[in-house]
Amino acid sequence: MSSAATTILFDLDGTLTDNFEGIANCIRHALARMDLPDPGTDALRACVGPPLRETLPRLIGSDDATTTERALALSNQTTDGVVYAPSAFGTTAGRPDSST
User: Which of 25, 52, 55, 91 has CA atoms 20 to 30 A from the CA of 63?
Assistant: First the structure.
C-alpha cells in the first residue's frame, strides 16, 4: 500500500532560486525612502546572507540602532500589498518600476 505525499516543503533561501534581486530592491527602497544613495550592486550583494541588522548600518553609514531599525522596517514594506519578490523564476511582482 502506498501513501501519497500530503505536504511539500520548499527551501527558497537562495538554494533553489536567486533571490538577490528581490533583496536588493527591498534595500534600495529603504535607502531611497531615507534619501540615501544606492550603494551599487557589489555592496548590495554583500548583504545577501547575513542578517540585515548587521549589514544595513554599513549601507546607511550609521551604527544608531533606531536608524537601523527604521531602514529594516522600510526594507520590509510592500507596494500594493506585494513584497518585492523577483527571483530566478522571472517574476517582477510588486516592483514599482520593473524596468530597473
Answer: 25
Annotated active-site residue in 11, 63, 80, 97? 11
Helices 52-60 and 20-33: angle between axes, nearest 10 degrees: 50
Going by pLDDT thresholds of 50, 70 and 90, the confidence category of residue 20 is: confident
Average per-residue pLDDT for the chain: 78
Residue 33 CB partners (closer than 8 Å, separation 6+):
74, 77
Does residue 18 have an active-site annotation?
A: no
The class level of CATH for 20-75 reads mainly alpha
